[in-house]
Write a structure and sequence with these properties.
There is one protein chain. The protein contains eleven helices and eleven strands. With about 290 residues, the protein is α/β, with parallel strands linked by helices. α8 links the parallel β4 and β5.
């Protein structure tokens, strides 16, 4: 079958699920992944023919897209800054706003600083691995409650040749800080923050294929993870150490107030490229 015919079938089958531009991006990503073909192949060779085996790979991927399975699960790869990451049902797919959070951290430090960095709720490892990759003198530790997520993060560290310490721990536990050897220069977290009432806004490919424990919190206590992390960061951070969060865009002031109430200084909200408050930073008081 000609590749152009398969492309037409993709559009016909997926038109009720995705915009035209997104279908194009899926198709080109899949021929790159499965056939090692660049997107301009149909310009250079409009009659390009694929084998039965290659057809089968593409049509299987098409079936999975119709189930609204994320492209990153089909290809087994997500891209985050300079990293290529494996993602599974046990990890969140890294988002652009998380890249912005990492950029903010890196802008605040000198490249040659010997920092101790703690990433709480690492998932695929995207934050920890990016920091370790770009701050070569930093010592980075990544924790998660999920052993399955940690297994994926460890694979990503090996795949990208990045050294990170991994530890299974529960940030809601009273013994959490006893398991970690501080003090830390930077603590960063992208914890669960989507309220149950916001589920209607979440796309099916997220709700059905990404770990609910890494996404959702109760409407009654939506800042539970921020509360626990902030309290523990007061103990674990060095004086003048920095705490960074990715946050719920609907609760910026409430989250900021947590840091203010716990004596963090220079507390700052930051907008993402879409103009939403998605990041928060506070500096621990210089007094012990």
């Amino acid at each position: 079958m000609q590749l152009s015919e398969i492309k037409s079938i993709f559009h016909k089958e997926l038109v009720h699920y995705y915009p035209k531009e997104e279908i194009d991006s899926f198709f080109y990503a899949l021929i790159d992944h499965f056939l090692n073909l660049q997107k301009f192949v149909l310009v250079m060779q409009p009659n390009y023919v694929v084998s039965k085996e290659e057809e089968s790979l593409l049509f299987n991927a098409l079936h999975r897209l119709k189930q609204e399975e994320p492209l990153q699960h089909i290809t087994g790869a997500a891209y985050f800054r300079n990293l290529t990451l494996k993602v599974t049902k046990d990890t969140l797919i890294p988002r652009p706003e998380t890249e912005e959070l990492v950029s903010w951290i890196l802008e605040d430090v000198r490249e040659n600083q010997q920092l101790k960095v703690l990433d709480i709720g690492t998932g695929s490892g995207c934050i920890a691995l990016s920091i370790a990759q770009e701050l070569l003198k930093a010592s980075v530790t990544a924790i998660d409650i999920s052993k399955e997520a940690l297994a994926v993060a460890k694979q990503n560290a090996e795949k990208n040749g990045v050294a990170v310490n991994f530890l299974q721990a529960d940030v809601l536990s009273d013994n959490f800080q006893k398991e970690l050897q501080g003090p830390w220069d930077i603590i960063v977290s992208n914890p669960p923050y989507v309220r149950e009432l916001e589920k209607a806004e979440i796309q099916k490919n997220v709700k059905d294929y990404e770990p609910v424990t890494a996404l959702f919190v109760s409407d009654q206590d939506p800042l539970i993870f921020y509360q626990h992390i902030t309290l523990k960061a007061k103990i674990l951070l060095k004086p003048s150490g920095r705490l960074y969060f990715e946050i719920n865009q609907y609760l910026p002031e409430e989250t900021k107030q947590l840091l203010v109430e716990n004596s963090f200084e220079q507390v700052e909200l930051k907008k993402d490229i879409f103009g939403n408050f998605r990041m928060l930073k506070g500096i621990k008081s210089g007094k012990n």
